Amino acid sequence: MRPRSAHSLEYKQLAFKLRETRKAKGLTQEVVSARLDKPRSFSFKVETGERELNVIELMDYCAALEEDFLTFVTQLSREVKDLRQDQTQKD
Question: How many whole angstroms separate alpha carbon 52 and alpha carbon 45?
Fold first, then answer.
């Protein structure tokens, strides 16, 4: 099993999906961070992959984005599966 880190392909997809979801909702990092009672740098670090989230933090982040957690995670799971398959085919 490969080690997981903020730099893994999977985590990069999570960070990308959080950023794209925020933008699609018309929210700024400032608004999301305020809803989480965190400094703006928190959202920036999450969206750039510098800061990992645990599952509870991800639930809170989805709530701040006004995004259903289960829907978000289901879509992310499909995307990660596709990325893994693409990576396997390249190897």
Answer: 8
